[in-house]
Amino acid sequence: MKILVTGAAGFIGFYVAKNLAEKGHTVVGLDSINDYYDTDLKYARLKELGIDKKKAELFKNIIASDVFGASFKFIRLQLEDRVELPKLFKSEKFDVVCNLAAQAGVRYSLENPEAYVDSNIVGFLNILECVRNYKIKHLVYASSSSVYGLNEKIPFETTDNVDNPISLYAATKKSNELMAHTYSHLYGFTTTGLRFFTVYGPWGRPDMAMFLFTEAIVKGDPIKVFNEGKMERDFTYINDIAEGVVRIIEKNIEHRPRYKVYNIGNNNSVPLLDFIANIENELGTKATKQLLPMQPGDVKKTWANVDELMKDYEYRPNTPISKGVKAFIKWYLSYYDI
After folding, report:
1. Active site residue: 169, 237, 313, 315, which one?
2. What is the CATH number of the domain that holds 262?
């Protein structure tokens, strides 16, 4: 198939694009390469996909991969660009669109709400319009576990009420689900939303706990532990996530419901202090913990019920936290030459 993967220089998008290209699909990766976090990391991911940084810095140019050849191409483009995005759809004639591009981060949405509306609302609308106008059969898109807000019933299920988001980021992701439902109903194409739970692993995002804790411990700085460590997360290893997304993209479209939302996580919840202990063990260093109150927009516990994804796509997350943390630490020390 020919597949558009937006957010291809991002954490999940990089893995999904690489997985699809290795399987022989023709992939076009799109990313704006914004400066929400270190752009050098984004360019380093693109380098792994065979895309030269100097070429990738230029907007609107489609670049072929030095690793995958014509099987992977990259274009730097913003989803908000209502002129260039339709041109891309018209010229490339995609079979499937996998929209993983978004302004991420719960806490940053308190500081820069406009970025979330631009990318996650306006950008997603532009994707939906292009999917509609260019007759794309299937749109797979990223939602988030953040939509569950302060729900106390554990584990989280897609049938739970999610009408009470507690961050603008979560509100934009819930909006994406509603917009996808509307377009599926009106125009007849298939949309599959994925509520990602805390994803971690090599090439991960510097604003997430795994990265922040490791960086602080290596530097000898205290780590910030919110809610005094009384938190739990459904930590999900990146390879398990990417495999799940690719299965959804590849499965015969005739067997899908027109509109569907799934949880995609590890199907268990790990105490934050246990997660930190795994990092300490791998680094051989004890962390100095700065115990802090709960952050605005944050939640105490997440846990994904992934039964539906297992049933429909044989999704089987199988990476234990100890193995995943070990892989991340090995990558981190190598990437930063420590």
Report:
1. 169
2. 3.40.50.720
